Amino acid sequence: MKLRRIQKIGLFIFFFSINFEVWDPLNTGYFSIAKFTGLLYFSTLIPQLQFFLRTSGIKRFLNPLWIFFGILTIVNLVNTNFVSSAIFDFSIFQNIILVILLVNHSRKEPGILEWGMLAYGFGSIAFALLYYLGIGIEESGGGRIRMFGDNENVIGIRMCISIIYLLFLIIKNPLKFSSKRFLFFIPVPIMFSLLLATGSRVGFLSFALCFILGVFLIKTKRIYIRIFILGIGVVIGIYIWNYVLLTGTLYERLLSSAQSEDLSGRDEIWKSIFPLIRYHPLFGVGTTGYNLYCYTVFGRFVSPHNVILEILCYTGIAGLSAYLYFFYRISRISYAKFKYSGSIIQLLLLIPILGSIVSGQILLTKIGWVLYAFVIGKSSVFKAHLKKIKQVKRLPSMINR
Question: Does the pTM exceed 0.85?
Fold first, then answer.
């Protein structure tokens, strides 16, 4: 019992710290708060590591990831060079292992990932309060802000995820809180202000789509409740848009995207890497070959800011097919959970993930993999529940026969 409690605390601390993923308070160049808490969490699992590394019941999710990683490793080996010789991508490997650990933790402690996401929300609240107090803020171009060395878009996506999850806790109350859960409304304006201050278009658009979809997908048997929810949604939506108009930075970036197709230089990067994809379409050139290409073309490493193009560069069509099949599996179980149990949160959280895939980075950031684990968690239990539902639905027809 004591070990279980330690493991639970370790998970909560880790989830909380994801908001400070790249913060290196000692300026070591390789240490970060999230790395430390991740190792701390892992150390609590070592006494029962065999259990936490089980893959039974989730191989349909893991196999495409291992195929993608296997292709990446082989292609890295083939394309080693004087710029980059790192064959084994430890960051992606440990993220896949993280998914396995978290899913098995949810098997051992049903509902633990829901509580973990709450701890993540508390971390986002703390992050937003530091912004409100002017601590850790760094100015970047165009009036956008970043904090603790983190990317503006990553911060925006994190705030989007936390706000949506806190609103979900308030409205659906899956953790069975009392009316005190409405206190979660208090930090939301500060968190939303931070989201806008980052000027993250992908963060804001992800939030807007989550909000609109959530309003329409919330299930209720009473029509007047549905009308009330829609009315409140429209009022809040109008208020949010008026608030965006007042902020300036984000509105100008959205306007420039719509009027002049301004993609903050992404289009130029994409044009520059298309030749690499065209000449190596099947298996790519690995991270090793991509680093050499960047050194030759840009003089430094440049992120594609698009995970699909990034994977095409690394592993070509073969690796991209495996990764997209994994994402298809994730999407399918999310939709099934919504269809048969009414749970909308897994479906909603796919939106910021998709936003990161299209216009950001998710292969190395922890929150994307944590959300994958959150969706997969209890999927084997859900499959058994779904089987029972289908059996019950077949009973009337069997009786009529």
Answer: yes
